[in-house]
Amino acid sequence: MEGVPRVPEQRCPEQSATLRFSVLGPVRAWRGEQPLPTGSPQQRALLAALLLREGRTATAAELIDALWGEEPPSQALAAVRTYASRLRKALDPGVLVSESGGYAVRGAGEGALDLAEAQELAVRADKARSAGDLCQARELLRRALALWDGEPLAGVPGPYAEAQRVRLEEWRLQLLESCLDMDLEQGCHAEAVSELTALTAAHPLRERLRELLMLALYRSGRQAEALAVYADTRRLLADELGVDPRPELRELQQRILQADPALAEPSSPVAEPAVVAVRPAQLPATVPDFTGRSSFVAELSEVLASADGRVMAVSAVAGIGGVGKTTLAVHVAHQARAAFPDGQLYVDLQGAGARAAEPETVLGSFLRALGTADSAIPDSLEERAALYRSVLDGRRVLVLLDNARDAAQIRPLLPGTEGCAALITSRVRMVDLAGAHLVDLDVMSPDEALSLFTRIVGEERVAGEREAALDVVAACGFLPLAIRIAASRLAARRTWTVSVLAAKLGDERRRLDELQAGDLAVKATFELGYGQLEPAQARAFRLLGLADGPDMSLDAAAAVLDLPADDTEDLLESLVDTSLLESAAPGRYRFHDLVRLYARACAERDEHPPGERAAAMSRLLDFYLATAAGVYAIERPGDRLVDHLQPTEYPGLRFPDRHSARDWLYREANCLLATARRPADLPSMLRRSIDLLWAALDISESGANSREYEATAKALLDEARRLGSAQAEARALMTLAHAHVDGGRFEMADQEAEQVIRLARQADDLLPVCWARNARGIIALYQSRNADGEEHLSEAIQLFRMLGDRPGEASALCNLSRIHLATGRTGSAVALAQQGIDVYDAMGNSMRGANGRYALGMALTQSGRVDSAADRLLEALDVFRDSRQRLWEGMTLFRLAEVDIAAQRPAQAAANAEMALTVLRGIGGEWRRGNVLTVLGHALTRIGQTDRARACWREALRIYEESGSPEAAAVRELLTPVRAA
Q1: Average pLDDT of the chain?
Q2: CA distance 949 to 338
Q3: Is 387 within 8 Å of 412 (Cβ atoms)?
Q4: Which of the residues 97, 138, 265, 491 has an alpha carbon 20 to 30 A from that of 19?
């Protein structure tokens, strides 16, 4: 908490009553948690002098010199004795000792002094860095730096304290430079820019910091700014000291000018592991009855064993679905685990489905499994792939890429480093994957197939019915998956004989015909397992296969089946036992992609009455809509949107608090969007799908799944237009306009909002009109059409009031506040924003209350009340971060930078602007990035980095000119040299 002194970390409970001291800040002492009196400034100076001698005796003369220098008072010796006596009473017996006419502090215990702890951490960091463990070294240095609590020896007088302050501050900067250097070595350049910008402002003549800033900017793709830092540094050194930059700085400038490729590596950030490196063990369980394939096992094992000493060992196993690629690969991978002691990664790439896994998504999952924090994972595919290779460098890790679509999908996922290996399965041969060892996996031989069948069913049941068993495996087409399903069902039914199972496969010729139909050949093998299901299991299999999405939660499955959760779980687990369904995680289930297609075919063929298919998907849509509406209501108390959504018959989930509600929304985002995007079985489902997207708009605002949200909105808009529903079209347009505003595509959003107003009035649907008016008002503000904006927002306020929608009214009031601000009416801008906040607060709407505080912070900034402005914006920032609203988090940091400039805090302004650029990567659009760059340029100018400031403005000007934004004129003026009068 602010204002509460930081107590040095306690090492263990039994030391809770031991003495501890701090000098890396105010000089303080504690016994356990209890602060001890340290007396007057001179008395603290004496204690500091003794502590910094690390147990060595200080003579009285040395202490007098430390406290008063060359002009001590006449009673200096008596004063020293008095101070020592008082300290001895305050401390434990035997800690402050007198000997040889002097004093010493001893016996306080290991780790009692924060400086000693920092020194120990720094030594350990040096050792870790020398050993190549940069992650550990960075963690140790960050812990050491965290021990500083302001100015060392703060408030302590005397020449000795002053000299020690200078020494300790210099050491802190050296540690910080080392830590930042390692940040850049591991690719955390984007995050380092903000900190380095602030540090160079605070220490403008420290060339090493300037060098690190140049490198961080260059690796962040900001070459012009990097060169501008050099120009600023050269001018500053010449003006202040009359010297040129040091050779290292000049060399770096030349390398940047030459675009030295070595400077660009590493190109992406690496996470800081908690304490030890994470060792993933993601391989699925191997089957205990693995049978045959001995030649393939030997071949693949030999390739994997050669990983040591090769750049990378890659084996690609190809074959039709159900041929046993995954089973073989997992078996071989388990056998090779000892050769890869640093872990094994696994992913199902869903290559046979309509929506294969995106490489960037897989890389994000792998990086997390390897210990990388979410905040350190970059956005782009190229950066994630580079970071992934960096994290794997020096490790021996096996990567199993299952069910790949093609070589292009898996190339970014290959380790590419010596000692690592990749094992790939796919339905296609990876002939275009350079250097890969290709294996074509065919169906089993009759002997292998029979052996597998026997191991599952049992020798005693097969021995007397060998011919019937051969008939069974032949009917399975010798495909391992089909054999396993059939044998498992037989093993589960002790009253059946093998002949009974063989008789159930009687229509062999039909199945063989199907086997000739390309990818659908596997359907014949699934038919065996499906035919053995109990009626309730078969119904669950058919209906669950209708749903889209990467997987399905137990609650969503219960909605599809219209069953209690317990009964649903029993059914799903029984399907898992037959291998027709997979358990992706506790409480989550998924189909193999080909099994899903087969399940849908079964639903079309077998589900009676046919309307049950539509009813099942209607229940799933109801479940998502009702739950998303509940999340929306928890996040935005009093908001009337939930009253204008299509009614649902199937209930949704209830949540105890907003955090669990929000967690559900982001966890289910992919499945929710897939359900909304699914073609409607009934006309009424289209309106509910659109309303679901509207209720889940946080998915767009958070930056998570923004592209998928927009694509879903477009698909629903097309469907609404096809059906000729004005109301559905208006609502779909509203969700799309919202996504376009979030993405900074204002012209498109304004056109869409204009259509919303026309269509919604035609359909007598007032709420979209309100929202569209509000949206057009803020868009007009962004486009400097303030009169239009005021007209739209005034109309929106009246419409919201007609609906009794107080939060909607508050939103429009806060937006109108910004129009007043833009037209010079600062007083009314403050009042309007406060009105909006009052409404939000009265309803407990903290998320939208943060938007109100954002608007109020802007108005207070312009009115000159910068402290109040900062308070309101910081309150908003806390809410946005807690709500995972990345767009608004980034914009609030941008507004805080404006406050800092107004408050004459340019270094802090630059740091906040840099953080805003980092948070807004990939969201918000280019126009918002241009605004941040403009403010960053102002901050940099005020800390003397004029060349870098101009580089920011040039980039902002490019953005504004490309988008036709009116802000271009002001930035162009900033870049125009001032002419002498």
Answers
A1: 85
A2: 54
A3: no
A4: 138
| Axis crossing angle, helix 466-475 with helix 446-457, rounded to the nearest 10 | 110
Q: Are strands 344-348 and 398-404 parallel, antiparallel or unpaired?
A: parallel
- Here the tokens at position 51 are 């502590």
- C-alpha span between 267 and 565 (Å, rounded): 47
User: b/e for 210-226, b at 16 or more Cβ within 10 A?
Assistant: bbbbbbbbbbbebbbbb
**Cα separations in angstroms, 75 against 71, 161, 402, 671:** 12, 21, 83, 80
Neighbouring CB atoms inside 10 A of 464's CB total: 11
Tokens 């304490």 sit on residue: 275
Contacts of 195 (CB under 8 A, 6+ apart): 180, 911
> What is the pLDDT at residue 514?
30
Instruction: Strand 582-585: give its sheet, edge to edge.
Output: 552-553, 588-590, 582-585
Q: Quick check: 323 and 563 in contact, CB under 8 A? A: no
Q: Is 221 left (phi over 0), alpha (psi -120 to 50) or beta?
A: left
Beta bridge partners of 35: 30
pLDDT band at 134 (very low <50, low <70, confident <90, very high): confident
Instruction: Give me the amino acid identity at 646.
Output: Q
Partners of 439 in the β-ladder: 317
Q: What is the pLDDT of residues 404-429, one digit of tens each?
A: 878 888 888 988 778 888 899 886 66
Lowest mean pLDDT among 106-120, 248-262, 263-277: 263-277
Query: Which residue matches tokens 């007209």?
Result: 791
Percent of the chain beyond pLDDT 70?
90
Tell which phi-psi region holds residue 291, choosing left (phi > 0), alpha (psi between -120 and 50) or beta: beta
Pairing, β 28-31 against β 34-36: antiparallel
> Which position has the token pair 């907003």?
658
CA distance 467 to 801: 80
Whether residue 76 contacts residue 67, with contact meaning beta carbons closer than 8 Å, is answered with yes
Report the distance separating Cα 907 and Cα 10, nearest Å.
34
CA angle 415, 421, 424 (to 5 degrees): 90
Closest CA to 88 of 105, 109, 75: 105
Q: What is the pLDDT of residue 579?
A: 62
Q: What is the pLDDT of residues 637-673, one digit of tens each?
A: 888 999 999 999 999 999 999 889 999 998 999 999 9
Rounded Cα distance, 16 and 401, in Å: 51
Q: In the structure, what pLDDT confidence band is assigned to residue 35 with cuts at 50, 70 and 90?
A: confident
Q: Phi/psi of residue 372, each to 5°? A: -85, 130
Among the listed residues 972, 948, 947, the one whose alpha carbon sits nearest the alpha carbon of residue 959: 972
Proportion of the chain above pLDDT 90, given as a percent: 36
**Torsions phi, psi of 721, nearest 5?**
-65, -35
Q: What is the phi-psi region of residue 70: left when phi exceeds 0, alpha when psi lies from -120 to 50, beta otherwise? A: alpha
- Put the strands of the sheet holding 398-404 in their side by side order: 344-348, 398-404, 421-426, 313-318, 437-440
> Predicted confidence band at 308 (pLDDT cuts at 50, 70, 90)?
low
What's the chain's Rg over C-alpha atoms? 34
Q: What is the DSSP letter of 522?
A: G
Compute the distance between CA of residue 914 and CA of residue 144 in angstroms, rounded to an integer: 25
Report d(CA 783, CA 879) in Å as an integer: 28
Distance CA 845, CA 811 (A): 11
Highest mean pLDDT among 134-138, 432-436, 488-492, 933-937: 933-937
pTM of full prediction above 0.85: no
Confidence of residue 900 (pLDDT cuts 50, 70, 90): very high
- What SS3 state is found at 478? coil
Residue 235 burial class via C-beta count within 10 angstroms: exposed 0-12, middle 13-18, buried 19 and up = middle
Surface-to-core class of residue 864, CB atoms within 10 Å of its CB (0-12 exposed, 13-18 middle, 19+ buried): exposed
What is the b/e burial string over 642-668, where b = at least 16 CB atoms within 10 angstroms of the residue's CB? bebbbebebebbebeebeebbebbbeb
